[in-house]
Design a protein that fits this description.
The chain is of the alpha/beta class. The chain is built from 10 helices and 19 strands.
């Protein structure tokens, strides 16, 4: 089958003919119908996060089950599914508490090497990054990383649920616990940021401030529920947020992954407010805060967010139903549909900030 392979850190994606194994144990073989281009895949491919290479990346996956392993309990051939990079065992204390995103044994979703490799190229193993490896015609995924969705859900929109939506909306609803009447700021309104705005709208936030450097993205943010927009290339976003809210927002979400924007997120929150780091920073990145003035005296909270604190078996079907009811905007997230061979050009457009999301629908 065809797949986009990263052979070395910093390389472009190479379209290769690779081999995929048959499912064993609780593995599910999925015919990939749509695969979203999340910026995190590119970030991890261009920087050394310790993922063994060569590898197949991609984690925003929607498709149809075509074969199941002998121990699979939840799925049958023909099911429509969405994958997520949250890997969990299901029996450790965090999992039993519902915090699958904090699982102590995520490796249990991987294949025992004694059973052979899931993916290989010319007889040599390929790493299935995130356990999903969705930049390919088919994907072999542990059933704990899949959620069933209604057949009526279009595949391009469905694939975005597995990362962009659970991460963005989940950070607002699950991690921050935004309530009706709260005020929210979102720094960076790409795919995840737009979903954070959607989540804030669903949660009943009374004021939702979108912050970005691209005027076109700020216009798009309004269709997701932003009540105010700030072009950070024209004004100081911290000062403007404080002005708009008479002292700062209850919750600020950083979805860029930069030192400057993370510090801004903290500083634009009110006394007792919370800043939530969603954007992926480069390894070794640091931030600087004045502890006495900006943390202790202001009683602010700074929290890292992993995949929107999501339980995918509950959250993905919930968001799917909200979309089908017309309460969650996914349509405007799909900027364009592309073929697998166009992946490098599409990522260049994503880096330039021109689009929200490209989705591979032709393999």
């Amino acid at each position: 089958m065809k797949a986009a392979v990263i052979n070395a850190t910093g390389d472009k994606f190479e379209i290769e003919e690779i081999h995929i194994a048959s499912p064993v144990g609780r593995e599910v073989l999925v015919q990939v119908k749509a695969s979203g281009l999340c910026h995190s895949d590119l970030h991890l491919a261009q920087n050394d996060f310790g993922i063994p290479l060569p590898a197949v990346f991609g984690h925003e996956l929607a498709g149809v089950v075509i074969e199941i392993g002998p121990d699979v309990r939840e799925f049958a051939v023909g099911d429509h599914v969405v994958a997520c990079l949250i890997q969990y065992c299901g029996h450790c204390k965090p999992c039993l508490d519902g915090r699958t995103y904090q699982c102590k044994h995520p490796h249990e979703t991987l294949r025992d090497p004694a059973l052979g490799q899931r993916l290989s190229l010319d007889g040599k193993p390929l790493t299935p990054a995130f356990g999903t490896a969705a930049f390919a015609e088919r994907a072999l995924v542990h059933e704990n990383q899949l959620a069933k969705v209604p057949d009526a859900l279009p595949f391009p929109q469905a694939c975005l649920l597995g990362c962009g939506t659970v991460t963005g909306a989940g950070a607002v609803i699950n991690t921050a616990g935004v309530r009706p009447g709260d005020t929210v700021a979102v720094i960076g309104v790409g795919g995840v940021g737009l979903n954070a705005i959607s989540g804030a709208k669903l949660a009943g936030a009374i004021q939702i401030i979108a912050i970005d450097l691209q005027p076109s993205k700020l216009e798009l943010a309004k269709s997701f529920g932003a009540t105010d927009v700030i072009d950070a290339s024209q004004v100081d976003p911290v000062a403007k947020v404080i002005e708009l809210t008479d002292g700062g927002v209850d919750h600020a979400f950083e979805v860029v992954g930069l030192k400057q924007t993370t510090e801004q997120a903290v500083r634009m929150t009110r006394v007792g407010g919370g800043a939530y780091v969603i954007g992926v920073h480069k390894p070794g990145s640091t931030i600087e805060l004045k502890v006495s003035e900006e943390v202790l005296a202001t009683q602010r909270k700074l929290q890292g967010v992993n995949m929107g604190s999501s339980n995918i078996k509950h959250d993905i079907p919930m968001y799917a139903e909200l979309y089908l009811q017309g309460k969650l905007n996914l349509d405007d997230l799909v900027s364009k549909e592309i073929s697998l061979s166009e992946i490098n050009e599409a990522y260049a457009e994503l880096q330039d900030g021109k689009i929200a999301r490209s989705v591979i629908t032709s393999f």
